[in-house]
Amino acid sequence: MLPETLLCLLNAAFVLAQTRQSIPLNQVTPFTPSNLPNPPIFTIPSANTLSISVALCTANGSPRFFVTNSSAVDDPGPGGGRDVFEIPITGGHGNWTGTFKDGGTLSVVDGRQTSFELGVSDDGDRPIHEVVPGLPVLGDTTSNQAIIFSAAFNKPLIQPPSYPNYTLPPANQSLPSPPSSAPNLTLIISTTLPTSPLTALPQTGCSLSAQRSLGRVTNKTFWMKDQEGWRAQWFLEALTPSTNYTAYVVQDRTKVSGPIFFTTKSASFSCPLVHSLPYCPNIAYSVPLPRPPLGSNAYDATNLPTKITTPLLSYMSNFTTTLTTFACGRDWYSPLVGCDDCQREYRRWLCAITFTRCGEPSPANSNAFTAVPPAPDATGLSAVRPTNGLDGSQLQQVFSALVPQSTDISKARSPTLPAMDSEYSMLLPCLERCTAVDRACPNFLGFTCPDVHFNAAASYGVGYVDSVDDNEGRGVTGTSQDRWGNIWCNGG
In terms of Cα–Cα distance, which of 127, 12, 118 is closest to 67? Predict the structure, then answer.
């Protein structure tokens, strides 16, 4: 018979284990200072592999979280020993993955001043709380509007056409039906100011979702703007001119994408936004057009003038007819690409050329643009200009490929666009938009791009994405735009 003292200790341990709260699998368990158990110790269910995630919902306090998967440790803490692990917290997030064949225990230290969430997932590669690697994408802005896309999700499996029924999409293509099940995505916008610093808060879904989002979402759809997959597309209004904004996308209130930063145009900016064109799915930016028809806040496939769409669709149709004179699918002109790739890249180039993109210098760097339109025989690199360093050395300053445009329609980049009643600045397309077609299409089409060392800079932004030596992604910026709101050239 066991000693009475030992029986009492075992009974106390049994009662304590019974009263401890168990963290359920694949659910979010929220805690506030008022409902945190005392002591704040939780049991973890048994499983081969579990991912334990933590999300701080408020900025006050500095709680610490300790976990053990050993049944010999009853109260994990700072001095718990070799089988106790502290969950590191970065930006308000914490995650720890391990085996829990006999279950485990989690304890919270100094958690009485903080609201937080706990999550236990049996999918070790997908914790409940996390910062997802994909970023939101800025389409473009006007003085008080913006188009923003979520990171891509649910990438569709697109089977390339095959011989003998090698059929390419029609010129006026339609997008496939949106996914039947999509994540719950919420856009959160704040000004990038010391008075409203979202980036100073815990970078967690529960923290960001509690903040008031600026602007007014007048339209939210799902859109597949590129081959990466479906995205949520938000059209915002009621923004303030010449204002810096910060944007996040929160998925299912537990996963965070962002931040990205952008700036609205000045109050005098006159180019409206164009978006949601099934035949040009990549177009989501401002274009030199008159004000949209009465009752519309932008241009889309329902209200674009036929003087623009008819020639575009005709060019696309004629190109496809010429392309398919090649025995697509039976004969191969490349081991890497086929006629479907050629048509897709040509469509993207044609749309970027047809829909000239407007822009304006950044208020923070008003001189960082092409002040004088390049001559037809312009040579050299358009992405940088030499500047003098403090020590007298020659530095290279990157500036956007913006070119002033007059109201003279004969000098317009796109002949199908109507004349503007005011001057504007054109953002030149990236040269890579042209070279992508050249690389993807067969030689017999005769599609060529201007030479980097001769006259490419007269009509394209050169040297931003790829280097002048044609090294992919090794240009001065490596991209057409970045998460900080810089748009160097029109990537289409």
Answer: 118
**What was the pLDDT predicted at 81?**
73
Distance set, CA 299 to CA 218, 231, 273, 309 (Å): 14, 20, 6, 12
Q: What is the pTM (predicted TM-score) of this model?
A: 0.90
* Spatial separation of the C-alpha atoms in residues 261 and 269, rounded to whole Å: 19
- DSSP of 98-164, one letter per residue? EEEBTBEEEEEES-TT--EEEEEES-TTS-SSEE-SPPPEEEEE-SS-EEEEPPPBS----PPP-SS
Q: How does residue 374 score in pLDDT terms, banded at 50, 70 and 90?
A: low
Contact 228, 151 (CB under 8 A): no
| Structural domains of the chain, with CATH | 20-129 (2.60.120.380), 137-458 (no CATH)
Tens-digit pLDDT profile for residues 480-489 = 999 999 899 9
The strands making up 255-263's β-sheet, listed across from edge to edge, are 130-131, 255-263, 244-251, 185-191
Q: Which residues contact 90 (CB under 8 A, 6 or more apart)?
A: none
- Which residues pair with residue 481 across a beta bridge? 487
Of 293, 289, 240, nearest in space to 267 by CA: 240
Instruction: Provide the token pair at 337.
Output: 């690409």
Sheet with 64-68: list strands edge to edge.
Answer: 21-22, 41-44, 104-109, 64-68, 84-86
| Model pLDDT, residue 396 | 64
> Which tokens in the block code for residue 393?
């050395």
